[in-house]
Amino acid sequence: HRKPSTPSGPLLAVPRPATAWFNTDSEREKDYICGTGFSRMKQVLDSIVIADFTQMMQGGWASQKLGDMGADVIKIEPPQGELERDVRFNGEMYDDWSYGFLAKDRNKRSVALDLKSEEGHEAALDIIQEADVMMENFRPSVMERLGLDYETVKETNSDIIYVSGSAYGSSGPY
To answer: How far apart are CA 108 and CA 20, in angstroms?
Structure first.
């Protein structure tokens, strides 16, 4: 019930955004829960667009913090949605949502793309072309196999800031 629908084009599905996840009538409570704050004043990163290919905790929290500071974070997920959408913590969920996903994915827009398909790849490049920053935390060589490594992305957007994270580094004994 939380998985994106059957693919029908380059934008395979749009998972529900964080700001719509909570059932409350209070706008103040929604703002508090979703981390959007009570003020709508201009923030330091308001004009920055982030193409977020991160997954799980490391990258998710990093891009969330940029969203907290006003960046427009566009989270690119696989067609079935990010794995962590359905991970239970101590067997618990909040209104059928994973606490882990909710804890690190506020202030983001989401789109599900099949990056292995031509349409999904082109849609990802369209997002990257408009982005200021691209973030990913896949295993080494995954982005190269997907055609989204730094050299390829730089051809699409020469001003891109490419952020790559790895739990254990991109080289070494582990």
So the answer is: 11
